[in-house]
Structure formats: structure tokens, C-alpha cells
Amino acid sequence: MRRNDSRIMLQIISDRRKENARDIRDMKLQKWHSSVFMKLQENKKYLDLSRFFIDERGTKPYYFDKEHPEIVKKGHENELRHSYHQAHLPVRQQDEAFGHAVRAVYLYSGMADIARITKDEELYQACVRLWNNVTKKKMYITGGIGATHLGEAFFFSV
Q: Average pLDDT in the 14-43 region?
């Protein structure tokens, strides 16, 4: 992340924290990788915000549906598009890697950082389950992940 991006992000967060915390879920900031915020872990308010984004992932109403309501059609609310963003379940309930592999690993890295710093055992166990799934069922012998031509996403278990 470039230095200027960090300053802009901090200003947005600082301004936004003055408002209702639940409104944060409506912001485009939720798309940013949680691990980005972990670079700022020496500041408790940024750690709390990182944890908030982790805890909000996979909760309803889905941020991605609110951002693009035009793509949500009645009867199709639970399609795979949420899996692509690792938002199909709250992160503590996830046990299989889905979706865009690089974004998933950024999310998992942020989850692991938060679990370590806050000693969150439930989040740590979710990380262990996801690690085991990626390394034992989704990783190629070369160490590659997300090798499908469809969205650089995880494929079926091998």
C-alpha cells in the first residue's frame, strides 16, 4: 500500500468513526483487505475496526447486495457470488476456502493477525480449519492456489 493511500484511509476511518459504527458496513472500505488495517495495529481503534470488518463478513444484509442491488433478483439471494468474496458465511463458521484465492488469503491473514493479537480462540480455530482445507485439499503440488480460469478462484477439492 502506498503511503498516500494509508493517509487517505486513516482520514476516512477517523471521519467515519464519528458516525454510527453500524453504518461502516455500508462503506466501500469493507472491500479493503482486513490485513491492510493490521499494519496499524498499534492503535486500538484501528484494531477494533479491523475486527469489526472481520466480524461483519458474511452477515446479512450482505454488503455486496446493498452495493449492487440491481444484480440481486428475487429467488437468487443466496447465489455463489457471496462465496467469491468469502461472504457466504460469517468467517468463524467457514471451513472451506471459496472464491478469489488472493482475496481469500488476504482475509485469512487478517483473521490470523486479529486472532493472535486479541487471543480470539474461536477465530483462531476458523483459521486452522481454513488453513487445513487450503493446504490439504486446494493446493497444487507446486504450492499454487486459485488456478481456475474462472475468477482466479479456488476450485473443487483435489
A: 52
